[in-house]
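Appendix B. One record, verbatim.
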Amino acid sequence: MSDSESTSQTTRDQAIAWLLRLRDAPADAQLQRTFADWLAINPAHQTAYRQVQAQWDWLEPLKDQAFRARDEALRYRPQTHHSTWRQWPAYSAAAALLFGVGLAIFSPQGWYGLPHSYNTAKGQRQVVALSDGSELELNTDTEVRVHFNHAQRRVELIRGEAFFKVIHNADRPFSVQAGNLSVRDIGTAFDVYKQADRVSVTVQEGVVEMSVQSEHRELHAGQQLAYSDDHRFVPVIASDIAAATAWRQGQLIFNGRRLVEVLAEIGRYHDVQIRLPDPKLAELRVNGSFRTEQLDGMLNAVTALLPVNVKRIGEREIVLEAASGKR
């Protein structure tokens, strides 16, 4: 082991010890001052402590689970406070054991893996870097649950829409579960949109396999397919790759979409109810590109394109009515 490696490990052990001591005596003013002095000695101390703190926070979900390493680490208490340096080995040994067991069992590469949930509110988007190097991008009002372990990588799309850039690994397959539909990556970038009556899949790069029980469909770059709530694979109508993934640039693109569908899409991004009481207006077709964050701009564009007027009823309710003499 080189001197730098030894020093790094020593610093890490000290950081672990400090973490446990500060948790044990958070109100000890003298301890806080000594800790501040230790941080100031070397920038590497600050880096090591941040890393150890981040690992501890990552293991926080295990606080209600009992296993020997954790119990030993949390049960340890020093007999006196006279010699900080002499107490470090006992602290760091217990904590290192805790971290080692936790990372080996519960990390995304561990035997079991610990699920993580991510979600966005209406109007929000979020990009999540996954532990395997893959990337997950969440659209508005979306929730996913990520479960990685030593054998597999699985994401459950609970609601909404997400775009996946997957680092392919045949030994650890990557799959997305949306209702009854399973989407398996074969080295690709793809979009999955869970709607009330269907799950739509759009492939930007590579190949995916859509599976439901014994039925399978393979999709290649540039292709789209949906699985409906009546248990059928159905083509995606009046859409294309650019339109399906435009939300990633904060846009909505409609190519001949029915007005009722357009209003449903607009409503995903804003905390308002948009109603269309006249069923005759539902079949009007919309073409154009709109910014998702600009509700008034989208509605004004719709009224400019179609014979409808916008009527606001309170702060969170909007009604579209036929424009007089233009139906």
